[in-house]
Design a protein that fits this description.
Layout (H helix, E strand, L loop, with lengths): L1 E11 L3 H12 L4 E4 L13 E2 L1 H10 L15 E6 L2 E7 L14 E2 L2 H15 L2 E3 L3 E8 L2 E8 L2 E12 L6 H5 L10 E10 L12 E5 L6 E7 L4 E9 H5 L4 H15 L7 E2 L4 E6 L8 E2 L2 E3 L15 H21 L4 H28 L6 H17 L1 H7 L10 H17 L1 H8 L12 H17 L1 H24 L12
Parallel strand pairs: 1-2, 1-10, 2-7, 4-12, 10-18
Antiparallel strand pairs: 3-6, 4-5, 8-9, 9-10, 11-14, 11-15, 11-16, 12-13, 13-14, 17-18
Helix pairs in contact: 1-3, 1-7, 2-7, 7-8, 8-14, 9-10, 13-14
């Protein structure tokens, strides 16, 4: 075993969260050692899309110039498909509302993004040891000792603090007895790259495309642009889908087959990479993200959007929130959990106003008996959003929004639902008149469908149904409490850098 000198902070993991943390600490004059088990560039399961808040962080780190040859052109449009029918196509409704953020996102392959961010951390002064796999962490109020494998050798590192940025199966988290095991917040994902033939005689708009289908519910499929003619194809589903007997590779194969059969450019899809899969745990999966001697950031700390499964920007933001807490601990010389609890207070204040609401939304979708009614409601919401830009801005923000107003979303959706329900019978009666204009919207049959779905849920597994209803009530109370105590979404303009 070889021993290394002591440093201020050891960061385990060199993904976006770890590199951001190392960069931010190093630029403040903190001695940082980053240990990364891989040698970059390397592939990572991800949709590769970076939203405006993430681009703001990358710009501050000086990464965007490094990535110019690898990123897509700006993306500010999206399309939403429900059961292979496009119900919304147009601008991303919540982009361009803040002067502090760019009005677009980029698709950046993770193998290039992560490498550029790690280079930025090193350029700021962080020491990087790649191909170094953390094996054990002993952390306490008196300091930290990390054992890691470097080739055939085992190296021992010491520091005052440690930050776990080593992903969903974090060694740092496990070493502190923090091991989430919650299928309600566990998402399985798989993706690959493909090439699309350009459509003859058509100029295709650059956009993200998301697909909701009964076979993937609760979850979705995506097709995101990549540099050149390539696209990133993937799916993300709750682990409960697997518990129902579905294989994630089979679901991905079925999704690609569906694209080939139904998408306007589907016939030209040519797979050009092997599929790779992974697991993420969404916000709230951990009961604590700090301990004597350290903190957890990024996927290690479950900073993943419960609705979209996106973790790049949220991981970077968690690191920016951790930096001042770690710096303050170094200044005071106090490394106990009580001192580091300021990190939890900071991220709760920043994330909870939006994430608690999104967690509630994800919980509502977990009941597989409600799949058909939910898909129908989603399609109807997309149709309304296509016609009403105000409704689109507010209500659609639950799926990747930059300024989430839970009470505003609930108000918008409920008003529309009440209007739709009140008009259900008049709309139904008008359909009996061949000469009357046929309106879209909820019908008495749709209302009956909801009632029957809830009844099937109760009858098929009463114990599960009652637990789900209890969880819904608790999450609802928590969401309303947080929404009422927060004047707005603190994430609207991003963290000051």
């Amino acid at each position: 075993m070889t021993a290394a000198g002591q440093t201020d902070v050891i960061v385990a993991g060199g993904g976006p969260a770890g590199s951001t943390l190392a960069w931010d600490l190093a630029r403040r004059g903190v001695d940082v050692l980053l240990l990364e088990r891989a040698r970059f560039p390397r592939e990572k399961v991800c949709g590769d899309f970076v939203d405006p808040r993430g681009l703001r962080v990358l710009a501050a780190m000086g990464c965007l110039d490094r990535l110019e040859a690898w990123r897509s052109p700006p993306i500010a449009r999206t399309s939403t498909y429900v059961e292979w029918e496009c119900h919304y196509s147009g601008p991303i409704p919540f982009y361009g509302l803040s002067d502090r953020l760019p009005p677009y996102g980029y698709a950046i392959p993770r193998e290039r993004l992560d490498a550029a961010m790690l280079e930025a951390a090193a350029a700021a002064g962080a020491v990087v040891h790649d191909e170094t796999s953390v094996a054990d962490v002993r952390a306490g109020c008196a300091g930290v000792e990390v054992s890691a494998r470097r080739g055939s050798r085992t190296a021992r590192y010491t520091a005052k603090l440690v930050a776990g940025a080593d992903g969903v199966n974090s060694v740092v988290a496990r070493s502190q007895g923090i091991a989430p095991d919650d299928p309600t917040r566990t998402v399985l994902a798989q993706r690959l790259y493909a090439e699309l033939e350009p459509a003859a005689g058509r100029t295709e708009a650059l956009e993200t495309e998301v697909f909701f289908d009964e076979s993937l519910f609760p979850g979705y499929g995506w097709m995101f642009p990549a540099p050149g003619r390539r696209v990133n194809l993937g799916i993300g589903v709750l682990s409960e889908v697997r518990l129902r007997g579905a294989s994630v590779p089979e679901l991905l194969a079925g999704f690609i087959e569906g694209l080939r059969r139904h998408h306007p450019r589907g016939e030209g899809i040519r797979v050009c990479s092997r599929p790779i899969g992974g697991v993420v745990r969404t916000y709230g999966a951990l009961r604590r993200n700090h301990f004597d001697g350290g903190v957890l950031v990024g996927d290690a700390g479950s900073f993943v959007d419960p609705m979209t499964g996106e973790g790049i920007t949220r991981g970077m933001e968690s690191s920016l929130l951790a930096t001042p807490v770690l710096a303050d601990a170094l200044q005071t010389g106090e490394f106990h959990a009580g001192r580091l609890a300021a990190y939890e207070q900071a991220f709760r204040a920043y994330f909870d106003p939006s994430m608690v609401f999104l967690d509630f939304c994800a919980l509502m979708l977990r009941n597989r008996h409600l799949t058909r009614p939910w898909l129908r409601a989603l399609a109807r919401g997309c149709q309304v959003a296509q016609q009403d830009s105000g409704f689109a801005r507010t209500s659609s923000s639950f799926f990747g929004g930059l300024d989430i107003d839970p009470l505003g979303i609930i108000g918008q959706v409920w008003l529309r639902c009440i209007e739709d329900v009140l008009l259900a019978w008049p709309r139904f009666l008008s359909r009996l008149d061949p000469g009357a204009a046929q309106e879209q919207g909820t019908s008495p049959g749709h209302l009956f469908e909801w009632q029957m779905a809830l009844s099937r849920s109760m009858l098929s597994d009463p114990a599960w149904h009652m637990r789900w209803m209890g969880d819904m009530q608790r999450h609802w109370s928590r969401m309303i409490e947080v929404a009422r105590s927060s004047p707005g979404d603190p994430r609207a303009g991003g963290i000051p850098i």
